[in-house]
Structures are given as structure tokens and as C-alpha cells.
Design goal:
alpha/beta; six-stranded mixed beta sheet; five-stranded mixed beta sheet; 15 helices; globular; 42% helix
Length: 464
């Protein structure tokens, strides 16, 4: 027979666990978005996209809908040898790509580190460094010849384009603050650095955003691809729009479509998302290098998901909902958690906490209770689901706007690739939000920023 005192103590412990969990659910309630709220989000983002496409409203629009001058989709028959440069974070890549018949594809690449000093120093020094890395790569690959090497440049920052081979930086994101680059044509800046190196004969024939690269790469494999999405360190989307809807368009009148780079990370910069904001989002924005900018991106992308979790955990500890109110010192350090922590925690089957305990051990929590683990898992799920559902709502708004019957969405980015449920969350929520009669699918881009740049370069420089 069991000891009644022990049974009572166990009951009280279970009651405390349950009460704490109820309080955690209340604490996380603003991350939970029902479909009526998501439809409100869709209406607002559609209006913002229309403003970005409008002639009179473009200048004040938060979603700029930049013209990319990409108007011809790949056929799958592109051929030749091309270079690609992929700059969009603390590491960048240089690639050699061979395209051949029957969608033949071969790639060699090198990754180069972009130090904090380079990211926050002089723009001239940054582009000189990139040019030197290009020189090392083509030397190693035995590509130094008298003929020009065509290069597709994936530049994953907001830019305004006036042609397919020019792009002015609108503003830095992702931790970059290099001076002398904003409002300048980055193709010209890099070309100047390339020309300073003897015998480096490279022609930048196309500049594109990584979302455009993703779209082009997937369209090369599947012509139904009409949307490109990145959910990684940052988040952005592009889609194919009819020229008649682009009021600022003044290009080739025989073309009927163009890829539009939304730069939707800036959605919310004019307070459009204030009622979707949590107090944790406000802290992240206030402590960011680009305060008041990229509001939507800060709610959904990999650069901020780990920090969101850290802030929620600190709040839970302060309210003594986990760890009996004892705070691990590591959680005092901003940016100490990365987005892969969410994937680790959610990878466990329901009711098991192997990943959660592994994470907690790493931050100095030796003996967490099952209740602690349950609450941390719940908070993590709320953060990642909000990210996926907001992205799904944005994609649903675009699908409804395009109103095409069968669309493939090409996706890349570390959050999409590595989170165990992100794909399923997107598929399920889009199915609930998209207009009836619209069929859609989502495919993973295999190296969109590399292959997509090469595919676009092949269209512009077919003799590569």
C-alpha cells in the first residue's frame, strides 16, 4: 500500500505542473494565430503588394515589389559553363557550374568567410576581398583565359534594378553595415574591384536575389514553378507578375510577365503588423541594428527565432514556470540561442524530450523535470508555427492574387530545410487559406542561389 503523504505530494506536484503549463499557454497565446487573424494578415499584405506595384504608391510602400528584369523562364535546355557568386550572409560562395542537355548539372564550389570586420567596414574593402576570392577560385579551377567568364551574381539584399545586370543597394540587412554601398550599383562596385586584379577576366552579366535564383533553379526542373521563397537567415519571396499590373514597367512591350522581388521582410515597417506583435518581438526590434526595419522578417526568419525562444524562456523563468525560477547564466547572453535549437527540440516524438534535455544540458540545466521539458517544447512549437503560418498566409495571398490553377512554389533556406515540420505546416495552412480551385505544390530548391544564377546567366550570356 502506498504512503498517503507521498501520494498527496505527488498529486500536488502534478497539480503544480498543470497550473504552470496553463500559465505558459497564456504567456504564449499571442503567438497562436487563428485563421480569421491570418486572413486579416492576407488582406493587408495584398494591399501592400498592390501599393508596391502602383506608380503613385510605390515610394511609400513597405513591400517594394522590385522589378528584376527577369522575363524569360528557363527551358531546361540551357548549356554552357558559368561562374556564380552567392553573397547573402557571413559566408559567401563562388561556384563553377556546367549546364548540359537533359538537365545535366555539375558544380564545383568554394565557401569563403566574411568576417565581422568585413561586414561592418568599408564597402571597397568588402568588394576587393570578394574579387580576390574570385581570383583564387578561377586560378584553382584553371579558368584563367583571355575570353570573358560570364558570372551570375546572387546578391541577397534589398536592391532596386534598372536592368538585369545592375542593382542599387536599398539597405543592408543580415548584420551588414558596410559604408559607401547604399544607393550604389553593386555590379559596378564589384566590377571595379575585379578590374584591379591583373588577368581576372570576369563579366557580371546578371544580378539576382536568392529568391529569384530559387525560382529559376526550380523552373529549370519544373516549368510550373511561379513562386520562389527563402526561409533561412532571412525571409523573402518573389513571384511572376503580369506586366500590365506593374505600373512602373517601361521595358519590352512584347513581354507579358516579369519576376517581381517582393522584399516582403519589410512588411510591417509602417506598423501594419502592430496587432500581430508580441512583447518579445518589440525587444528584438529595439535591440537590432536596423531598428524599425524588416519587421516581418524579424517575426519569422532563422536569424531571430532562437532569440525569440531565449526571451520567452527568460520570461518563463522569471515567472517561476520552469527550473523553479533558477536562470542558467547562458540565457543572459543575447543571440546565444540559434534557430537550430527549435529543430532539435521539435524533432523528438510527442511526449519524449531527448533533444530538449540535450539542449538544456548544454545551457547548464542538469535535471529538468518533464514539466519543464513540456513547457519548453510548447513555447518552441508556438514560435515555429507562427513563423510557418505567417509565411503560409503570405504565400496564400500571392496564390490568390495570381489566380492560376496549378502553381509550384520553389523553396530554399535553412529553416525550411532543417525544421522537421515546416514543410507540412506550410502545406496544411495554405490548403486552409488558399481559394478553392487553386492547386499548388512546394518543392525544395537544390542549390537555387547557385544553379539559379547559372541558369539566368545562360539566358543572358548564351555563349558561356
Amino acid at each position: 500500500m502506498s504512503d498517503p503523504k507521498q501520494s498527496c505530494k505527488g498529486h500536488l506536484n502534478n497539480l503544480k505542473t498543470w497550473r504552470n503549463h496553463i500559465r505558459v499557454r497564456r504567456l504564449c497565446r499571442n503567438f497562436v494565430l487563428p485563421n480569421n487573424k491570418l486572413r486579416e494578415f492576407m488582406n493587408r499584405i495584398t494591399s501592400c503588394i498592390d501599393e508596391g506595384l502602383g506608380k503613385e504608391t510605390h515610394s511609400k510602400a513597405t513591400i517594394k515589389c522590385w522589378q528584376t528584369y527577369v522575363q524569360d523562364m528557363p527551358t531546361g535546355n540551357e548549356k554552357g559553363q558559368f561562374l556564380a557568386l552567392d553573397l547573402g550572409g557571413s559566408n559567401f560562395r563562388v561556384l563553377k557550374l556546367d549546364l548540359g542537355e537533359n538537365q545535366y548539372f555539375k558544380m564545383n564550389q568554394e565557401t569563403y568567410e566574411c568576417s565581422k570586420e568585413l561586414m561592418n567596414g568599408s564597402g571597397t574593402i568588402l568588394f576587393d576581398y570578394i574579387a580576390n576570392c574570385l581570383n583564387k577560385f578561377v586560378t584553382k579551377e584553371g579558368l584563367k583565359t583571355n575570353s570573358q567568364l560570364p558570372l551570375g551574381f546572387t546578391f541577397s539584399f534589398p536592391m532596386s534594378q534598372s536592368s538585369i545586370d545592375s542593382g542599387k543597394l536599398v539597405r543592408w540587412t543580415k548584420g551588414f553595415t558596410c559604408d559607401g554601398v547604399v544607393d550604389q550599383d553593386v555590379v559596378q562596385l564589384l566590377t571595379k574591384s575585379i578590374k584591379n586584379i591583373p588577368d581576372l577576366n570576369i563579366h557580371i552579366c546578371a544580378i539576382l536575389n536568392d529568391t529569384v535564383g530559387t525560382l529559376m533553379s526550380c523552373a529549370w526542373l519544373n516549368p510550373k514553378t511561379r513562386i520562389g521563397l527563402i526561409v533561412g537567415t532571412g525571409c523573402n519571396c518573389c513571384y511572376i507578375e503580369k506586366v500590365k499590373n506593374i505600373q512602373l514597367y517601361s521595358g519590352d512591350q512584347t513581354k507579358t510577365e516579369m519576376v517581381i522581388n517582393l522584399e516582403w521582410g519589410a512588411y510591417g515597417d509602417n506598423s501594419e503588423l502592430e496587432d500581430f506583435y508580441t512583447k518579445y518581438d518589440k525587444v528584438i526590434d529595439e535591440n537590432s541594428e536596423n531598428r524599425g526595419q524588416q519587421i516581418f522578417e524579424k517575426m519569422i526568419s532563422g536569424m531571430y527565432l532562437g532569440e525569440l525562444l531565449r526571451l520567452v524562456l527568460l520570461d518563463m523563468i522569471d515567472k517561476e514556470l520552469i527550473f523553479d525560477g533558477i536562470k542558467p547564466s547562458m540565457l543572459n547572453t543575447p543571440q546565444s540561442l540559434t534557430s537550430d535549437v527549435l529543430s532539435l527540440i521539435e524533432n523528438d516524438p510527442p511526449g519524449t524530450y531527448v533533444g530538449t534535455r540535450k539542449f538544456l544540458q548544454k545551457i547548464g540545466v542538469a535535471n529538468p523535470t518533464d514539466g519543464d521539458c513540456m513547457n519548453i517544447r510548447y513555447a518552441t512549437e508556438c514560435i515555429s508555427r507562427r513563423s510557418a503560418y505567417l509565411v503560409a498566409a503570405g504565400l496564400s495571398a500571392i496564390l490568390n492574387k495570381m489566380n492560376e490553377k496549378d502553381v509550384i512554389i520553389g523553396v530554399d533556406g535553412s529553416v525550411y530545410r532543417f525544421h522537421p515540420f515546416y514543410h507540412n505546416l506550410l502545406m496544411g495552412k495554405i490548403s486552409e487559406l488558399v481559394n478553392s480551385g487553386i492547386k499548388f505544390g512546394i518543392i525544395l530548391s537544390e542549390d537555387g542561389s547557385g544553379r539559379g544564377a547559372a541558369v539566368l546567366a545562360s539566358a543572358v550570356c548564351p555563349d558561356g
